[in-house]
């Protein structure tokens, strides 16, 4: 596989921006990472090179180019125009501050042409909040990656009310090309899909600990040693489908139980007050703050090996 001529702009050289750069480089695109500080870019390039070399050494490198070839595809720049002009796709990865995103999207919009897709990595803001005033707003959308993006393939593609369906289609095709697993929402909704489901799990996890039903460690074990085993391969709806003689049979057997248990759920909690310290203390007993990075590294290795396993086992529907 040879490198491509097409250009991808990455705005922001933090952890998410670095992951996006690696993903696009794996497919041979020419990447320009923009940031406002040269030391930030330099640090990002050093980290990316080390990550690619480590992944290659461990046999976990994604894409068909080797680590050296992928790294040659990645450039750093302090010039927004250099990152954006003639790019087929621009991925914004700046902090989750609405005014910053508005400023960045305005700057990109002033430079890009009518065919450039302008995408945000945001997990917090629906795209209409920062794309309404753009002249190229029909090409603006959200492509929300899951942290860490290089190791978790899901990408949520979220259109604004004015996003051209063709921009969604092109984004989905691009995500599939670089090895991600896109899902397309038909309209914007707060929290998108993953966080809405994740928040429901977090809320009930909080309540089980707050009510003294389970410890933090045991709540997490319910997922890591139970639900998570199934959900790593099947979603909750297909899981239910397989747990009975089809979905209709599942509903006929369990609808009353699900409804009656759900009626016992408490009002939505807010993660504040003394209970946050209780949860925090138990989590720090499990993983001390100084060991977070080593735990993240272990997590990323597990995710990479799981991806390799899934590629050998998962039937393609």
From TrEMBL:
What protein does this entry describe? 3-hydroxyacyl-CoA dehydrogenase
Please give the organism: Pyrocoelia pectoralis
Q: According to its UniProt record, which protein family does this protein belong to?
A: Belongs to the 3-hydroxyacyl-CoA dehydrogenase family.
Listed under GO biological process in this entry are: fatty acid metabolic process
Q: Name one GO molecular function term.
A: L-gulonate 3-dehydrogenase activity
Q: Does the keyword Oxidoreductase apply?
A: yes
Which segments constitute the 3-hydroxyacyl-CoA dehydrogenase C-terminal domain?
191-244
Record keywords: Oxidoreductase
Q: Specify the domain of life of the species encoding this protein.
A: Eukaryota
The 3-hydroxyacyl-CoA dehydrogenase NAD binding domain, residue ranges: 7-185
InterPro entries found in the cross-reference section: 3-OHacyl-CoA_DH_CS (IPR006180), 3-OHacyl-CoA_DH_NAD-bd (IPR006176), 3HC_DH_C (IPR006108), 6-PGluconate_DH-like_C_sf (IPR008927), 6PGD_dom2 (IPR013328), NAD(P)-bd_dom_sf (IPR036291)
A Pfam family (short name) is 3HCDH
């Amino acid at each position: 596989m040879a490198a491509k001529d097409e250009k991808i702009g990455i705005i922001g050289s933090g952890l998410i921006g670095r992951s996006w750069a690696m993903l696009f480089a794996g497919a041979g695109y020419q990447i320009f990472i923009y940031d406002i500080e040269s030391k930030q870019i330099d640090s990002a390039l050093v980290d990316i090179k080390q990550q690619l070399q480590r992944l290659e050494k461990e046999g976990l490198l994604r894409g068909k180019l080797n680590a050296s070839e992928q790294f040659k595809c990645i450039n750093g720049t302090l010039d927004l125009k250099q990152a954006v002009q003639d790019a087929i796709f621009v991925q914004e990865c700046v902090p989750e501050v609405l005014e910053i995103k508005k400023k960045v999207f305005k700057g990109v919009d002033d430079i890009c042409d009518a065919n450039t897709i302008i995408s945000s990595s945001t997990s917090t803001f629906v795209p209409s909040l920062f794309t309404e005033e753009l002249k190229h707003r029909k090409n603006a959308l959200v492509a929300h990656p899951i942290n860490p993006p290089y190791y978790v393939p899901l990408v949520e593609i979220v259109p604004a009310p004015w996003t051209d369906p063709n921009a969604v289609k092109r984004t989905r095709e691009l995500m599939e090309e670089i090895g991600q697993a896109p899902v397309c929402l038909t309209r914007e909704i707060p929290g998108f899909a993953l966080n809405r489901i994740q928040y429901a799990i977090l809320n009930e996890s909080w309540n089980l600990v707050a009510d003294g039903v389970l410890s933090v460690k045991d709540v997490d074990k319910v997922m890591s040693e139970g639900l998570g085993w199934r959900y790593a391969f099947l979603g909750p709806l297909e899981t239910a489908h397989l747990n009975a003689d089809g979905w209709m049979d599942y509903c006929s057997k369990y609808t009353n139980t699900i409804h009656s248990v759900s009626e016992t759920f408490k009002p939505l909690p807010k993660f504040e007050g003394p209970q946050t310290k209780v949860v925090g203390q138990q989590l720090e007993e499990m993983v001390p703050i100084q060991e977070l990075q080593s735990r993240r590294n272990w997590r990323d290795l597990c995710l990479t090996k799981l991806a390799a396993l899934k590629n050998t086992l998962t039937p393609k529907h």
